[in-house]
TrEMBL record:
Protein name stated in the entry: Oxygenase MpaB family protein
Residues covered by the ER-bound oxygenase mpaB/mpaB'/Rubber oxygenase catalytic domain: 23-258
Organism: Streptomyces asiaticus subsp. ignotus
EC number: 1.-.-.-
Keyword Oxidoreductase annotated: yes
Length: 286
């Protein structure tokens, strides 16, 4: 694989605009529900899957890893100047991650095509989550705007612009080729989509006590949303089943989410970093 440095790094690039589409949706509960689908698509790439399998604590500390991942995503969108700092941190964190994948091929986490794929998965999953959980699907203009904002995040993260398409029209052929040629049912992808996955309890005494009863409910719900909110072609490439009955249940769940989530108070509807940024924006503070 290529080991070239990215053509653009985080310096001088701005996060998505206040009031943009990502500003509205990225920190909201419904978008958070879609993140496992994107993560599973990421680790279905054999290089990403090998890196997570060999270097991540997702099996022993899934709650801590999940919290750190959510914080990182929130900083990209709502962090202002902190977004650039977070981009540098992520590159430092991944700089030493390398090894050999399940096919005996060497990989590096920061190989430009690999790093770009990890970022690219968010866009189709945001579209699909909006279709099922949002008030309405995005218009074509909104899809273009969202993609433009996603590219801005890529620049903040130091994604090589030669590796990620510059327009929606170019994105979909790239995406379909990646799904067709690169994705496979890696060990980690299968684990993340497993309804009966062995997930340790969170570090919260009441939940820990009840975890033997709660774990099957949690893992089945996570698997349901992971597979359901994944684009069908990616789902097929990973070998994940999805029945008509599951599709009906997802649509019913989406209808309920469209009614309930907008009624929640902001402290429950948005994650903390998003809440703080929204409050500052209303007050006219940076």
């Amino acid at each position: 694989m290529s080991t070239q440095s990215p053509r653009h790094t985080a310096e001088g690039h701005d996060p998505p605009p206040v009031g943009g589409i990502l500003w509205a949706v990225a920190g909201e509960l419904r978008s958070v529900l879609a993140l496992p689908a994107a993560m599973t698509m990421q680790v279905a790439h054999p290089a990403v899957g090998a890196g997570v399998d060999q270097h991540s604590v997702f099996r022993t500390d899934p709650w801590g890893r999940g919290e750190r991942s959510l914080r990182s995503v929130q900083l990209w969108v709502y962090g202002g100047a902190r977004a650039e700092t977070e981009g540098h941190r992520l590159r430092r964190l991944h700089a030493s991650i390398q090894g050999v994948d399940a096919h005996g091929r060497p990989y590096r986490a920061l190989d430009p095509p690999v790093y770009a794929w990890v970022h690219a998965t968010g866009y189709p999953v945001y579209l699909r989550a909006q279709r099922y959980l949002g008030t309405r699907p995005f218009t074509a203009a909104e899809e273009r705007q969202l993609y433009g904002e996603w590219l801005r995040i890529g620049r903040v993260l130091g994604i090589d612009e030669r590796e990620i398409p510059g327009s929606v029209e170019e994105f979909w052929p790239y995406y379909r080729a990646m799904v067709r040629e690169r994705l496979e049912p890696t060990v980690v992808a299968r684990e993340l989509a497993e309804p009966d996955a062995a997930v340790p309890p969170p570090d919260a005494p009441p939940v820990r006590l009840l975890w033997p009863l709660l774990r099957p409910l949690f893992t089945r719900f996570r698997a349901f949303l992971t597979v359901g909110l994944m684009p069908p072609d990616a789902r097929e490439a990973i070998g994940l089943e999805w029945t008509p009955g599951q599709e009906r249940r997802l649509r019913w769940f989406g209808r309920a989410a469209r009614v309930v989530v907008p009624l929640l108070p902001e402290r429950l509807r948005y994650l903390p970093i998003a809440r703080e940024a929204r409050r500052h924006a209303r007050a006219g503070r940076p």
